[in-house]
Amino acid sequence: MNALKNEKDAELKKIHEEKLKELKTNMKRGTSQNTPLTLTDDTFQDTVKAHPLMLIDCWAAWCSPCRMIAPVVDELAKDYAGRITIAKLNVDENPKTAEEFCVVSIPTLLIMKSGKEVDRIIGVCPKQVIAEKLQKHM
């Protein structure tokens, strides 16, 4: 039983290391991300520190309002590619980060600048409202 657990832990660690390496490589290349990044509890801090301005969509699969705002978040990723990094954090799969940022209602959009939260939007709102908030921090 322990051998199986150790094997799974080693495999997960290897996958985690590969994903971090891929993320760092993409950041060094300066690739402009036109689709939202997927964040996890493990990658959140490093990713936020690496990107000067981010919009992070905190969501869950069962959340209807989250599904309503998802296409808007995808559009913003295309609109702001190369200027603002757009990312998604599934709060059910990543409770540590959700708790750290006191995300108690979803969807919650966090605006992060230089590794710190500078603004947030709770609930569904029009794309223009989100864009205006982002513009204030550019």
> Average pLDDT, to the nearest integer?
89
Q: Biggest sheet, in brief?
A: 5 strands, mixed
**Strand order in space, largest sheet:** 1-3-2-4-5
CATH superfamily of the largest domain: Glutaredoxin
CATH class of the largest domain: Alpha Beta
| Uncertain residue segments | none
**Residues in helix, %:** 40-55%
Roughly how many Å apart are the termini? 52 Å
Shape: globular
Strand content: 15-25%
Level-2 CATH architecture of the largest domain: 3-Layer(aba) Sandwich
- The counted number of beta strands is 5
What does this structure look like?
Helix content is 49%, strand content 21%. The radius of gyration is 16 Å and the shape is globular. It has five helices and five strands. With 138 residues, the chain is α/β, with parallel strands linked by helices. Strands 1-3-2-4-5 form a five-stranded mixed sheet, with helices on both faces. The protein has two domains: 1-31; 33-136, Glutaredoxin (3-Layer(aba) Sandwich). Helix 3 links the parallel strand 2 and strand 3 (85-90).
